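Sanity check

After download, print the first record. It should look like this:
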Amino acid sequence: MSGSTEHAAPPPNARAAGALEGIRVIDLSRVLAGPLCTQMLADQGANVIKIEPPGGDETRTLGPPVNAEGDAAYFTAVNRGKRAIGLDLSLAGGRDVLLRLLEDADILVENFIPGTMARWGLDYETDLKPRFPQLIYCAISGFGQDGPLGGLPGYDAILQAMCGLMSVNGDPASGPTRIGIPIVDHLTGYTAQAGILLALYHRARTGRGQRVDATLFDTALSLLVPHAANWMHTQHVPGLLGSAHPNIAPYDRFACLDGEIFLGVVNDRQFGKFCDYVGLAPLLEDERFTTNRQRLQHRDALREAIEAALATRTRDTLCQDLMQRGVPAGPVHSVPEAFEQAHAAHRGMRIDRDGYHGIGAATRLAESPARLRRPPPAYAQHTDEVLREAGLDDTHIAALREQGVLPRWPPPKL
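Expected C-alpha cells:
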C-alpha cells in the first residue's frame, strides 16, 4: 500500500512559512522523547541541527526493519526535518564547535544523564546562561537533577512500572502489563515541546531564555487520571480492569460476530440509544442499570447482557450505526487497519513521499501548516554544510576531522 495516493498526506501550502520559521534548534538528544520533541519543532519550520556522538543515535540500530540507508525504521519515525552532524563532545574541540553553533541558536535540547553537561563545562546556569542569555535550554531526563532519584537513568518501561501505570493496565489473568507503546517517552516529548514554546513566549516578552525541565517521572505520574484522583479521595487502591473504565459503564471492549469493538457510553442518554438499537430496551427499566453509578455496581451482569446482544452483529456495521446515533463505538483495529481508514488519509496522518514513510503531524495550524521539509538524515550527512554556515572554512573542518572531533561516517558497526 506504500506510496498509494489514498494514503498520501495532502500537499501543504508551499508558500506558507512554518510557525517556527527562523528558530534555530541544537538537538543533542537521542532515542525517543527528545528526538520526537525536536521533530515536532522541525515540522513547524524550525531549523533543527541534530548532533550525534561517534556511535550515532541508538535508534539507528534498533532494527530491522531498516530503510535503504540502513537506518532502523524506529529512527526515521522521530528524526525527519533535521540536518545531522557528528561531533565528539568528550573532546575539547567538539565542545568548542558546539559553542560556536550555539552563538545563533534559540534552543538547545539534550537528554544526557544529569551532570554530563556540567562535567563537560557546559552547565546551563554556570557556563551557558551567562554566555547565551537568550538561549532556551531544555533538559529531558528520567528523574531530574536532584531529589532522592535525581540523576538516575530513566527508561519508559521502568517508569511505567515505578509510577503505577502498569498496575492499572492489564487484567487479573495477565497481571500488571506494560502499555504497548512507549507512552511515557512519547508524552514527555510533547511536554518538552510545550515547555519550549512557553519559554519562547516568555522570551518574547522579557528577552531572556530559561531552563526547561521535562522528566519521565513527572510525565508518568501525570498520566494517572482518574486513577490517582480516585485513590486520593477514597484511599481505595486502583486495580486491574482490563479495558474497562474505573468510573464509567459500559466503557469497555466487547466481542461481536467478526471482531471486537470498544463501546464508550458516558451518560444515560447514550445508554438509552444503545439499548434501543441493540434490542436491550428492557434494561432501561431495570433499576440495576438506570444510572451510571448503578451500572458500575452491576457491571458483570451488564457485560453479560451486552455480549449476548452483540454476538450476531458485525463489527463495522454496528460501529457505524451506533456512531450515527450518537453512541461512541469503534472497531478494535490492527495498526494496518488504523492507517487504512479513509479518515486517516483525509487527515494526512500517513506520509509516503520520496521513499520516506511516517506518521503525519498531529498539530494542525491553518495559517502555518506543518509539513515534511526533509527526510531523516543519514549519520553526519550535513556536517560540512552546517559548519561552513557557522563560519568554519574547509581547512578548519579537515583539521577537526583529523583530530577525531568530527567522527567519520557511517560510524563503525557495534
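If your output differs, re-run the checksum step. Summary of this record's structure: The two ends are 33 Å apart (CA to CA).
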